Amino acid sequence: MKFALKRQFEVVLVAGQSQIKPSFACVKLIVVPSGPDAADDYLVEHAVPGELVICSDVPLADRLVKKGVTALDPRGKEFSPANMSERLAVRNLFTDLREQGRMGGGPPPHGEKDKQAFANSLDRILTQLMRPA
Q: Could you tell me the pTM of the whole model?
């Protein structure tokens, strides 16, 4: 939120169920009808190149990147055309291993290192997106 307030960006939150909207004027909350991938589909349909979407969903990021939209995960790793094949393969491998019971859980807890990496990446990406084309 600090980045959005400082740089006067609009923040759009897209959710599949009702949420409490943060009380900042720069925040817009969009609740889409519930259903499989409804929020993802909304994001892909409405996001345009020059915008940033923050998500941890690798298939969603792939759809956005193919459309030319910048995507960043909550740990500060940018999704790009160059890394999407690898990130999808790793995601699919871990999904298969979990389904086979050969691996449990998800990623480790979000720590200070992740927060700093995210803040650094966010600052870098927003600076790039603000530059005139």
A: 0.88
Give the count of alpha carbons within 13 A of 15, CB side only.
10
59-81: pLDDT as tens digits: 999 999 999 999 999 999 999 99
Helix (H, G, I), strand (E, B) or coil at 29: strand
Q: Which residues pair with 78 in a beta bridge?
A: 72
Which phi and psi angles does 44 have, rounded to 5°? -65, -40
pLDDT at residue 83 greater than cutoff 90: yes
Distance CA 54, CA 76 (A): 9
Four-CA torsion 103, 106, 107, 108, nearest 10 degrees: -90
Strands 70-72 and 78-79: antiparallel
Give CA–CA dist 65/63, Å, rounded.
Answer: 6
Q: What is the DSSP string of 43-77?
A: HHHH--TT-EEE---HHHHHHHHHTT-EEE-TTSP
* pLDDT, tens digit, 9 for 90 and up, residues 106-122: 778 899 999 999 999 99
All structural domains of the chain with their residue ranges: 2-130
